[in-house]
Amino acid sequence: MKKQTVAILLIMVLLLAGGCFGVYSYIQNQKNEEIKNTPIFSCKASEIVEYGVKNGPEDYLLIKGDDEWYVKDNDVAVLNSEKVQETVNSASMIMTLGLLSERELKEFSVTDVKELSLALRDGTRCNIKFVGEKAEVCAAKVNDSEEIYAIRTSVRDILIAPLSKFRASVIFDGLMGEDAPLEYYSFKDFDKSETVIRTKISAEISNSRKNRYIMEKPYRKDVDDEAFEQLILVKIPRLAAEKYEDETPQDKEVYGLDEKSRARIHFKWGDFDETLYLGKTEGGLVYAERLGKDGIFMINSSQLEFLYTEPFYLLESGVLRSDFENISGLTVKTKDKEYKIESRNRKENNKEFFVNGKTASEAAFNAVVEIIGGIKINSEIDQDVKDNGDVKITVYFDNGAGAQKISLSAVSDKEYAAFTDGKAEFAVDKKSVEELLLELDKISKNPIKTDEKG
Strand pairing partners for 153? Predict the structure, then answer.
């Protein structure tokens, strides 16, 4: 009788356990059905501002700037923003196949942790760790939650793509790390107008040491180094091919790359002596060809906007061709007055200064020189103007630079046209010229006693 009682109790226990397991399985299945094909993460793609991946040697963080994505702490990588955005769009809606039970998880092979981190504009963060896989399904944890989600392996592979997938194809590979200074740059536009800038030779550097570069076309004038480097030079190494169009072109005219139609970039920079031809624009992409290389490729037109920087905005703003510290004397003539400023042994202990032949103080001399050095070009001259010679200035230098003659003719109540070498290319501020004439009149009347220490 006892054996029967034990048997009955054992059966009841097994039935109860089986019932409990059945209830648990039912609840688990119900929960699975509720979350199946629902997102474990969802937001507007435009809200994602950081995209990070850790997968073995792949460890990078993409950050969204004003217009483009870039790699944090990596100045070399040039990204194809469209490819980055495609992946970011995929991350904005990550679907699950359901929850994985502990029993199911045991069937998954353990892998090295692969990690995706996202940050939104409002500061929200999401971290997804992929911790195992089985066939076409992988296991994932969201923000270190206890629940394990099933996600398609193909989705995971899209989300944790290697950085190389996003890289644009840099045209001048290796130029980014070039330490040597640029020697020569030219851009000939489709209309055949040309900008030419080169490194100065030693004699030119002695005239003006603050600028490394000089423009040859369309103006013959010193270049503002910082403007040139920021607006032009930093952009050249980043030029990248978006796609390759034709490996063996037969008719370049179709792409606008025939000799009479194309534009041209040419530069010499360290070991690089490169020419890049540009052709027609199609769908926001420009056909291009690298001299000496096979194949036609396409560049995003936005990457080439720097080529159309107005040459005027690259120029050194001062009107002088040499540093004003090198001025040894000057003459200034108006319609009814003439001033002659001279120095002798200016850089020696026995230095002397004269205003219209009268002994003057060094302060008087310096006051005029500083004003001359501060006269800036305001704008380009876009009209035919006559040289009326309202103010004629001849500046002498003691560094070997030839005398510079500047003839000023009023073109408005605010500007003078500045004629140099018989040609007017720029306008200067009338107020600064009037300041010069006022100071000249002042020191001509009192060359020794000035408001400054002499």
Answer: none
Q: What is the CA radius of gyration of the chain?
A: 37
Distance CA 68, CA 63 (A): 8
Q: Which residues neighbour 194 within 8 Å (Cβ) at sequence distance 6 or greater?
A: 186, 187, 188, 217, 218
Whole-angstrom Cα distance, residue 385 to residue 242? 47
Task: Please work out, in degrees rounded to the nearest 5, the angle formed at the alpha carbon of residue 214 by the alpha carbons of 228 and 405.
Answer: 130
Give the whole-angstrom CA distance, residue 179 versus residue 177: 6
Residue 403 CA to residue 379 CA, distance in Å, equals 24
DSSP per residue, 41-66? EE--GGGEEEEEEEETTEEEEEEE-S
Asked whether the whole model's pTM tops 0.90, one would answer no
Q: What is the pLDDT of residues 415-427, one digit of tens each?
A: 999 998 778 889 9
pLDDT in tens, 122-148: 999 999 999 999 989 999 999 978 899
d(C-alpha 242, C-alpha 345), whole Å: 62
Q: Which helix (H) or strand (E) holds 392?
A: strand 391-397
165: its two tokens: 């997938």
Q: What is the pLDDT of residues 343-354, one digit of tens each?
A: 999 888 899 999
Label residues 27-65 b or e (16+ Cβ within 10 Å = b): eeeeebeebeeeebbebeeeebbbbbbbbeeeebbbebe
Confidence of residue 13 (pLDDT cuts 50, 70, 90): very low
